[in-house]
Amino acid sequence: MKLSAVNQLDKEAFVALLGGVFEHSPWVAERSWASRPFASLQALHEAMCFVMRQAPATQQITLIRAHPELASRARMSPDSVQEQQGAGLDRLTPEEYERFQQLNRLYRQKFGFPFILAVKGKDKNDILRALEARLPNDRETEFEAALSQIERIAWFRLEALVEE
């Protein structure tokens, strides 16, 4: 849909279109609607990220936890399924799958939320290396990394939905 048409949507239609940009968190789109009209796709993205960043930490952690673990077989949003398939995470060998599961468990135990990475343009080896590299971080660093990665994921999803 063209950005000019997005700017004309009522709140309900806006949320219906963009509510999934932030995983299972339509509140981001709902609160961003009042910032219309958006001069560019970048401005729309910035408005949505601002809403996410201004949310209370409890709401941010709920957003982070709404994301599926990478390489899991858990129920995922259609966007997450497509993103993980694009990175080859649906075609892991049993050994690779077990390694991802082991690292995901360690990560979740340490930080209390899933490892989040914008996987577009990455393959399973890139993702595994990133997971291993970030595991030694402290919780504050990883909380910020998760929000930053969610912003990247949101950008890719907006690009797929909205034309300038």
UniProtKB/TrEMBL annotation:
Gene Ontology BP terms: allantoin metabolic process; purine nucleobase metabolic process; urate catabolic process
Record SUPFAM superfamilies: UraD-Like
Catalytic reaction list: 5-hydroxy-2-oxo-4-ureido-2,5-dihydro-1H-imidazole-5-carboxylate + H(+) = (S)-allantoin + CO2
The protein's annotated pathway: Purine metabolism; urate degradation; (S)-allantoin from urate: step 3/3
UniProt xrefs under InterPro entries: OHCU_decarboxylase (IPR018020), OHCU_decarboxylase-1 (IPR017580), OHCU_decarboxylase_sf (IPR036778)
UniProt-listed Gene3D superfamilies: Oxo-4-hydroxy-4-carboxy-5-ureidoimidazoline decarboxylase
One of the record's GO molecular function terms: 2-oxo-4-hydroxy-4-carboxy-5-ureidoimidazoline decarboxylase activity
UniProt cross-references to PANTHER family, sorted A to Z: 2-OXO-4-HYDROXY-4-CARBOXY-5-UREIDOIMIDAZOLINE DECARBOXYLASE-RELATED (PTHR43466)
Protein name: 2-oxo-4-hydroxy-4-carboxy-5-ureidoimidazoline decarboxylase
Record organism: Calidithermus roseus
